[in-house]
Amino acid sequence: MGAKVEAMQARPAAAPRGVAQARSLFDPEILRQALVGAFGKLDPRVQIRNPVMFVVLIGSIITLVEAAAHSSVFSWSITAWLFLTVIFANFAEAMAEGRGKAQAQTLRRMRADTEARRLDRDGTEVRVPASTLVRGDIVVCEAGDLIPSDGEIVEGIASVDESAITGESAPVIRESGGDRSAVTGGTKVLSDRIVVRITADRGNTFLDRMIALVEGANRQKTPNEIALTILLATLTIIFLPVVVVLQPFGHYAGASVSVVILVALLVCLIPTTIGALLSAIGIAGMDRLVQRNVLAMSGRAVEAAGDVQTLLLDKTGTITLGNRMATAFVPVSGVGEQDLADAAQLASLADETPEGRSIVVLAKERFGIRERDLGAGHEFIPFSATTRMSGLDIDGRRIRKGAAEAVCRWVAEQGGSIPEALSEIVEEISRSGSTPLVVADGARVLGVIELKDVVKEGIRERFDALRSVGIRTVMITGDNPLTAAAIAQEAGVDDYLAEATPERKLDLIRAEQEGGKLVAMTGDGTNDAPALAQADVGVAMNTGTTAAKEAGNMVDLDSNPTKLIDIVEVGKQLLITRGSLTTFSIANDVAKYFAIIPALFVTTYPQLSALNIMKLHNPKTAVLSAVIFNALVIIALIPLALRGVRWRPSSPGAILRRNVFIYGLGGIVIPFAFIKVIDLFLTAIHWY
Amino acid sequence: MSLFWTIAVLVVLLGLTWRFLGSYIAAIYQGRVHYLEWIERPLYRALAVDPEAEQTWQRYAGALIVFSGVAILLTYLIQRIQGSLPWNPLHLGAVGPALSWNTAVSFVTNTNWQNYAGESTMSYLTQMVALTVQQFVSAAVGIAVAIALIRGFSRKGSPTIGNFWVDLVRGVLYLLLPIAFFAGLIYVGQGAVQTLAGPVTIHDALTGYTQVILRGPVGFMEAIKELGTNGGGFFNANGSHPFEDPTALTNFLSIFLMLSIPVALTYTFGKMVGGIRQGVAVLMAMAIIFAGWTAFTVYAESRPNPAVAAAHVVPQPQGNTEGKEVRFGVPLTTLYNVVSTQTSTGSVSGANDSFTPMGGFGLMSGMMLGEVTPGGDGSGLYTILLFAIITVFIGGLMIGRTPEYLGKKIQSREVKLAALGVLVMPIVVLVMTGIAVSVHAGRVAPTNSGPHAFSEILYAFTSQTNNNGSAFAGLSGNTPFYNVMGSIAMLLGRFAIIVPVLALAGALAAKSVVPAGLGTFRTDTPLFTGLLIGVILIVGGLTFFPAVSLGPIVEQLSHGRLF
Questions:
Q1: By C-alpha distance, which of B374, B385, B394, B153 is closest to B284?
Q2: Interface contact A281, partner B, CB < 8 A
Q3: Reported pTM
Q4: Which of A272, B135, B399, B406 can bridge A652 by disulfide, Cβ–Cβ 3.0-4.6 Å?
Q5: CA distance A24 to B102
Q6: CA-closest candidate to residue B459, choices B331, B357, B336
Q7: How far apart are CA B65 and CA B491, in angstroms?
């Protein structure tokens, strides 16, 4: 451990990356704060919210009274360890909260008083503190200014550094009108000047909400957490009479039953392990999302993510790289492929679009045609929406590339003829889901460039993995059905929605939900807002509009639609961790019984020592060993609770078998070994 | 018949009834059987019931409580005034108030705990009109609740769960009456008495002894006693009286009848929720635990009684023969008693009190698992489904999904109701036993002392709360204390579970169905069966381990070792 800590300290502090900061699970600062927090949480008003640990606290008070009345090393030791059990539980929760608190502090610094340049109705500029801005105010921001609050650009275009929130250092372009008009308070204008209309009230900005979220200020129990708490409370209620009646039972048998041992037995039986870690698991789940730069507006959404059965994924950026790439040159008869490549490369040299660049790259890869200096005497013909082609005039050659229809018309105008094979080639390429780009040199058609939507590497495997856990993927695209079908097949999605409009998206979500399925989707535009609101898990891209961000229940600061898959994983992990630790906690009881029951009645019924299968030293070491194990196991499981139980996509049966084996059978066997070890230790130090 | 062949034939016959009786029961409650309409319709008119009108769970539960309440009062009343009523050849007087109350509650709750000797306490009319009638309707009530819960699973977005009156009437008419009638014929044919003629006096001229032999309407009561998992016999000796259980054939028939409906209901369940395998998974959990307990108990009884062995008086080559039905031998008597304790029937073929401590532990702990293996008519299925919901909840979490069972999401309301239904039994048993061992009235009742006396008290409350009705015996139960405490245990053990079950049925019926997918936690696999067994054993084990270690376990250990 020592060497590890040193190594950690030797490493230069990682540069803050948005909300998510690389922090070790055992950051010394968080540890220190959590220790303080563990005691602060002893307040009964806080404690009562966790029924299981509240019983432990009451129990420790009973043993305290008992120890004060009949002082003995044994009763004081039990009291101390019961008290520690409560402290450990509080510590686990404080640890989980610690990371969020640290992140909130960083964010608060950003909110520190900035000055805003407010434009009044008469056009005069007034400098006011940002905190006095109200919704509807108009402010001006110029290069170097911090944007004072959330708003909508009404005039101008600017590059904005949003790294404070997203962690992404490359500036983004924000402009008035359309889907890129939203700006966030706390981000910095790098160039140009914009006029912004404030859209958020004081205290309710994105930054404010983000701080509240990472801090867990108004964290509410999620539905599943409530259900589990009920089950744990039930178990606690059952064990209460189980233990209490041992007093009359023992009395009937002629035994005097020690209250301290009864309390110890009760605490050992009730599910303290999961009871202590339950809220830490929930907080850590939210935190794991924050580490992935996703802000969940509610824990409910994270839980729902684990249940998602249908993922709606935008084709562009999620499934494909987003830009079409040239993948083949198909010449018409009588033209060499290299000639076509050469002409296409010439026509694309000045084309800075990703498609244009990819043609140059392909020509180089295929035929070694290098970029060349054209010298003087040439003219680029840029793409325009009316001509639908671009090209180059050089040395009397007039090379054009563009949509088949447009180039054919242009060739005809030049007096050329269209080769018969062309339409076949064009159709062929279209059918395969690619885009054909016809190249002509003057009146002569040379051939076709195939532009392909390139599916991201590894995405197919990811969909296969999702399918194996029962999640259906649906690709959403504006493409025509033919193209959509081809890409869908290549990417291995289960279904696709072609020529998607916001209405059709919404209809699709409704249809899936009517069948009882939970749907997750990503979106960024204002017209995505209804669908985002309708989806059970709606992830808004941070680059998106305010409307989209408000409609969704999560915001992805990286604006990476593939994140949806991560979010599903975190949701599943959250539930698995709860289930596994509950199983573990209950399974532990078996060993504790075998430690405590013989100890409890051994004076009356010496024959019960046959049940002392661990051969514990004496009744006192047996009971204390069980109590110590019960307390220490909480500490031992904190890392697991914070990190979550590993989840890999595989069949539910396989996951269940694995977890039942580890946490069920393991939960029965492990305590036998550890209680014995603790007992040996207590015996060795002559504690008894 | 040897134990092996008995079990082999039993498995084959139960397999057949599982399939055919199971689907017949589904047909009854889905309203697809009509041959007794000519009795059914006038009955509804007399009860002023519209058979087409469905009830919400609240109304269903309300009707059930009202019906059971009236039944308790009637049964109580008949016992109190039996002296002025006909069919009383022994001229038996009114049964005492505390005992009448206990008996009324006992028969209405399908418990059939008997703090009296039937032949010398109850008139023929009381036996027939008060007790046997309840043996029919209380079983029908249990099955109705199970069917209501199944409807909860199979319906989508429904506000109602069926009509209690229709379920009750159809259960009695189409299911219990026909089978009990034919089984009754066999009992009578084999020699079980069935007469209203009163006792006979026999004078043996050779020895000079005069013997009064008590008789009564026994044979047909016997049929419904076993079929309805009731267990209340005409005679004090119950199944070990030759007039109740005259031959090896009737002994086998009794075992078969006790198991028939609880086992068949798992098929009904599978059929009605649209997947027979769902029913098989539940049945397998029942069967595996049952097989384990049978093997354990039969083995324990095949061993010498440790107390007798310690005295070095007689060798015990047959195992522990004390208190066994000598006509059928140790293994079959043990099998009968295991079946009777695990079906919530409670009739006995041998004296439970004379079982070895481990054998007694086998009987007692079988009930402590909640009477789910396979449990009583209806009650076995609805109770094991509560365990199934808890299993699904924990198992579902472990695969990372909000748990769902048969397409219904298991959320806080369902968990709350299932947990409530599961926790009632252990709490009532433990608290009642705790009270009984603390007060004088409770402590003086056992005829033994030490751990065995503790076992007797613990057994009494376990049996009554689980609506089993078998007695460990050795406990003088007919005291005001035990009559009243027992009645509370029986009422809570019945209705404090039925009401949450019906609420659960209502909550489930209102839910929509999540389609099953690859990621769904499957509940029709051996893995689920294994988990369900684990949950039943863990819940039962953790709640009763301290109590049984102070009873049978310590008693056995007093003889040196567990076996």
A1: B374
A2: no
A3: 0.87
A4: B399
A5: 66
A6: B357
A7: 11
Identify which of B431, B443, B560 has the shortest CB distance to residue A241.
B431
Would you call A137 an interface residue with chain B, using a CB distance cutoff of 8 Å? no
- Using 70 as the pLDDT threshold, list the residues of chain A that sit under it: 1-26, 110-113, 167-169, 179, 217-218, 317, 322, 375-376, 385, 525, 688
Q: Which ipTM was obtained for this model?
A: 0.91
Answer whether A314's CB lies under 8 Å from A127's CB.
Answer: no
Q: Cβ atoms within 10 A of the Cβ of A56, count?
A: 26
Burial class for A421, CB neighbours closer than 10 Å (0-12, 13-18, 19+): middle
Q: In this structure, is the dihedral angle defined by the CA atoms of residues A35, A40, A42 and A45, taken in order, positive or negative?
A: negative
Per-residue confidence band for B47, with pLDDT thresholds at 50, 70 and 90 = very high
Q: Give me the residue label for tokens 């910095």.
A: A188
Interatomic CA distance for residues B461 and B477, integer angstroms: 11
Distance CA B324, CA B355 (A): 9
| C-alpha–C-alpha distance, residues A547 and A503, integer Å | 16
Q: What is the per-residue pLDDT across B98-148, written as a single tens digit (0 to 9) for each?
A: 999 999 999 999 999 999 999 999 999 999 999 999 999 999 999 999 999
Radius of gyration, CA atoms only, chain A: 33
**Angular region, B194: left φ>0, alpha ψ -120 to 50, beta rest:** beta
Interval B180-214: pLDDT, tens: 999 999 999 999 999 999 999 999 888 889 999 99
Which runs of E-coded beta strand occur in A284-355? 294-296, 310-314, 320-331
CA distance B504 to A393: 79
Q: Beta B210-213 vs B200-203: how paired, if at all?
A: antiparallel
Interface of A with B in 436-495 (CB under 8 A): 467-472
Q: How close A658 gets to chain B, by Cα (Å)?
A: 9
Helices (H), A432-521: 459-468, 481-491, 502-514
Measured from the Cβ of residue A311, the count of other Cβ atoms closer than 10 Å reads 25
A655 in B contact zone (CB under 8 Å): yes
Beta bridge partners of residue A473, listed in sequence order:
A311
Report d(CA A455, CA A390) in Å as an integer.
Answer: 26
* Residue partners of B203: CB distance under 8 A and separation at least 6: B209, B210, B211
